[in-house]
Amino acid sequence: MKRLFRANFVRLLRDKVFWISSGILLIYAIVYMLNACRQERSGLVGTHFLEDYYFQFAIFIGLFAAVFTTPYLSTEYSDGIMRNKIIGGHTRKNIYLSNLALSFLASLFMTFMGFLGGLVGIPT
Question: Whole-prediction pTM value?
Answer without folding.
Answer: 0.81
